[in-house]
Write a structure and sequence with these properties.
homodimer; Neurolysin, domain 3
Chain lengths: 497, 497
Amino acid sequence: MDSIKELREHFTKLKRLGYILALLGWDQQVYMPKGSVKARAEQIALIKGMIHKKLISPKTGKMISNAEKLKNLNLIDSAILREAKREYEQATKLPIELVTEIAKTAVLGHQAWEKAREKSEFSIFQQLLGKMIGLQIEMAEKLDTGPTLYSNLLDLYEPGATADWVSRIFNNLSQKLGVILEKLHDSSDKPNQSILKKFYDSEKQWKFSMEILKRLNFNFDIGRQDKSVHPFKTSLSSMDTRITTRISENSFPDCLFGTIHECGHALYEMGFKEEIHDTILSDGSSLGIHESQSRLWENFVGRSREFWIYWYPILQKYFPKNLKNYPLEDFYRSINTVQPSFIRVEADEVTYGLHVILRFEIERKLIEGEIQVSELPSSWNEKMEQLLGITPPNDAKGVLQDVHWSGGAFGYFPTYSLGNLYAAQIYSDALKKHPSLPEEFNKGEFSNLLAYLREEVHQHGKIYRPLELLKKITREELNPNYFINYLEKKFYSIYKI
Amino acid sequence: MDSIKELREHFTKLKRLGYILALLGWDQQVYMPKGSVKARAEQIALIKGMIHKKLISPKTGKMISNAEKLKNLNLIDSAILREAKREYEQATKLPIELVTEIAKTAVLGHQAWEKAREKSEFSIFQQLLGKMIGLQIEMAEKLDTGPTLYSNLLDLYEPGATADWVSRIFNNLSQKLGVILEKLHDSSDKPNQSILKKFYDSEKQWKFSMEILKRLNFNFDIGRQDKSVHPFKTSLSSMDTRITTRISENSFPDCLFGTIHECGHALYEMGFKEEIHDTILSDGSSLGIHESQSRLWENFVGRSREFWIYWYPILQKYFPKNLKNYPLEDFYRSINTVQPSFIRVEADEVTYGLHVILRFEIERKLIEGEIQVSELPSSWNEKMEQLLGITPPNDAKGVLQDVHWSGGAFGYFPTYSLGNLYAAQIYSDALKKHPSLPEEFNKGEFSNLLAYLREEVHQHGKIYRPLELLKKITREELNPNYFINYLEKKFYSIYKI
């Protein structure tokens, strides 16, 4: 069994270099003085180069083929071999020139995108975006892992997913979300979210977010929270998971739900079983599964009535001026207002999926050559009108709002919605097995939900592939109806339908 | 000239790996959650191993011998070659088994030392210290750079220094410090430092330290200050120098003078000329020269009357309860109290040198085999009585107080006192060239002193060797009389002699 041990250790070394890269990134976003931007970029490039060189070395290939000769590998070892092979093949299929060209175009593209968004002028971004799409198509051709070009990209983020599979799910989802949206629109008793736009002191918001983290069993012995411009989660070892939050004094939900969201991601990484610590399996099963954990805590728990039965009296004490005379039920409805809007990251639970579906349909066509970059703004606006019934007043609030495409992340967006669907199905299973969970939330008790997730999801890390994991837990294929049922039940009640 | 460019870039890569190592260390001491200690140790070992492997590779040797063939190298390139050769030879002379054995013994030795200090029982530490001394002797033999074994170790920290040279300087210094100490002891009007032991709120101490940093022209665009258990300075690039401070609410000088001390180190590293950024020369000329910069700001400036003419009214506003009715002159005398005491890091400007001389004399004899480890506590106590006229009540307050020997740092202590001597000589030169500096301090103006240091010391980084640099600045060899004269003038006035 020495060849599997050798392979495991080789990839543990790569993992550690990855953690070091993550520290360089975390520090850059959280504490690094601004003068060191260039020097840090060189340091990051140095480590990235070392990782790439070690990964594509013939030594790695030899280790993999040696390990493949072994019979009767146990569950963990065969997962290690599977993932090592996947990473090795992805890296060796792509010529270094292409990888470098994509990295360079991403840097320039990001600059152009920022400028374009600032001026709300798509034309500033168009050329570099076109170039990036060309490079992504080239990458998809080289990867050649799935039935279509777009599927090859999708597989990078959601292993095993194909364009057709996502398309079938999203068509169904899109239609059903449309129906819900229409019903809510017709309600004569809608919630009002103006209370959330009042002034909330940032120091108090921070303290409240830390109090929530503690009670959600975020383990500060193996993690921490800091502040940054864009909230994120990162791991610097299997015993060091860090999240960040952003505080806006006039938009209270940013910090609150941002913290719960990132906490959901962090709890996943804090729960890997010790056997896989610092190995190639010390990671989420997929981006979609990872997102299921953040969404589950943020929405299914954090925006539930039960959650606020416990937390609202505490929150009222933090912000008596704003909330003392504002009833719990009104607050609960406020944070669950559904309203078609232009910006994805500000969208509610119902419309969020439609934002993602729009991006999926457009990026799929871009990669498959069915639409041209020049047509993007008009395609975007038409789709927006069709799905959400509104038309962006300008490109900044439309096609230019997201950072993803500028950096070359095509095939990434669907994982956000898949995350919601996985979350609904898993949460429904949790409630079946532990019907008393909502009552526990009333009392500020969240450890039984965490224990369930740890047992069913977290501990396994990347041992199982996403759909395999989902089936293992719920004994079912992915079924979007869980999500639809959850939305209907929750929002028809809030909107008194 | 391609071979010097190749050499420069090779060592720039090593420097960057060194910066990454520094970030791993900084984060560990400042923000890392405690659960990640083992994982971080693995990450640090991984990068250290990579640096070592790259440094001792035959490729490095070849680059150096290629560069040595070049004629007419300019100042910077020949310094790069000199330092590259020095690092390469140091690393290749030491067998990897010895380096590993020292590292292991340091870890165990540190644990034993901590336990021994806690229980004040030298015997707990004795065996591992003995082993470490054996390994240091072996290392000194392999290095073989100077006239004696101890000189070889000294040269690691203060390039070019020899045991005899330090000995001559310290003998002179020891005698003169003894005379000063005696005179101060006989004074009938001594200062009193009880005011410094009152309660000072930690948040206010922090704010005051940040205000001082700003006015001393610490550049927050390329640096930052945080808190840690042991204060330190580290650089994560030539545009990113970080310091830490420690706040004790019942010992006000810890944070205040600690901050100024580390600021002095940081200003050095913030002032390297751009041409040597991120190269092997992007470092202090030696530990002694580095210490001269921290001591110059901490003592020559930070404990001067002129400094407090500006700062004391501000400090009084921070702590009115303690200081409102306490006169400036009394405060100035309080922070300059001279008193033989057991602990080096708490020592004043006069007795500090005697603490260092004691360590130098003992460690020199240990390495040269003139005393045995078992004799250490008694040698220590005798020397203490001889130099400072006091005998430690136990080993924790005596031979066990410093961490250095447990980690294998023999030859390091002298650089602390050399730093004071360099500082006095350089500061005297500064005052000759800019006699108005003290008046500027009265007004809170420190930029002309910084400009002088930047011009004469900082910009050059490691281009010049320490004594070469000192001579270039002051046109003189190291002359301890500057330090003695400074002490006499300052303390005879404070002690009304």
